Amino acid sequence: MAIDEKDIKEPTSSLGKLSRRSFLSHIGAAGVATAATGVAPLAISAAITEAQERTSSEGHAIPGTVPVTLKVNGHAYSVQIDPRATLLDTLRETLYLTGTKKGCDHGQCGACTVHINGRRVNSCLTFAAMQQTAEITTIEGLGQPGHLHPMQEAFVEHDGYQCGYCTSGQIMSAVAMAEEPWGAGDGDVKEAMSGNICRCGAYPNIVAAVQVVRRIG
C-alpha cells in the first residue's frame, strides 16, 4: 500500500514544532564548530529563535514541563523543560549548544564544565531550573574565529587536545582557574585541573597551555 507524503508527519523538537529534519536544514550550510574554537553557528541561533516564536505564538506546552528563562552567553532563552532536566541536557538538547560535552554524566570527568556567574561548574550536576537568575557561559560564548580567547589560542598552539572530547571542559575549567588563587607551579595547575580528565593523556600540553596564559595574564 502506497503512503501519501502528506500523511507523513515529522517529529517535533522540545523547542516547539521545529522538526529535526527542518532544524538540520537550517544549520547544514553553517559547517561544524570545533571544541577548541567553540563556535555556535548563527543558523543555530536562528533555528532556536524560530522554534521559540512558534511555541509562543501557538501557545503549546509539553505536559509536565515548566517555563524557564536562562541567560546563556549573554542571550536570554525562554523555554519549556522538564523540571528535573540538568543544565547539561538543557544546553545540548533544548538550546542546541553542543560544545558542552556529556562524558560520565556523574560529575567525575569535567567534560561538561561551564561557568555560572564566573565560577566553573559541572553542568551535569545542576538543575537548569535553578539557574534562572545566573549568568551562564559555555564554550560557544568564550571566543569566536578571528577573536579567540587566549586560552583557546594556547590550546591550539600547544596541541592541548587529541580526540578533543574533553577540550571544551578543559578550556572552561582553565579559564576559571586562572582567576582563582592557585600557586604558580605546574603542580598547582595539575591540582587545580584534576577534576578534568583527558582520556588521551594530553596533560603535559594542557598544563603548558594553561601556564602560558597565566604568565601573560
TrEMBL record:
Superkingdom of origin: Bacteria
A GO molecular function held by the record: oxidoreductase activity, acting on the aldehyde or oxo group of donors
Keywords: 2Fe-2S, Iron, Iron-sulfur, Metal-binding, Oxidoreductase
Pfam families per the UniProt record, alphabetical: Fer2 (PF00111), Fer2_2 (PF01799)
Transmembrane segment boundaries: none
Keyword Metal-binding assigned: yes
GO cellular component terms, A-Z: periplasmic space
InterPro entries attached to this UniProt entry: 2Fe-2S-bd, 2Fe-2S-bd_dom_sf, 2Fe-2S_ferredoxin-like_sf, 2Fe-2S_ferredoxin-type, 2Fe2S_fd_BS, Aldehyde_Oxdr_Iron-Sulfur, Beta-grasp_dom_sf, TAT_signal
Domain 2Fe-2S ferredoxin-type as annotated: residue spans: 66-142
Record keyword DNA-binding present: no
NCBIfam families given in the database record: TAT_signal_seq (TIGR01409)
This protein's name: Xanthine dehydrogenase YagT iron-sulfur-binding subunit
Taxonomic path: Bacteria, Pseudomonadati, Acidobacteriota, Terriglobia, Terriglobales
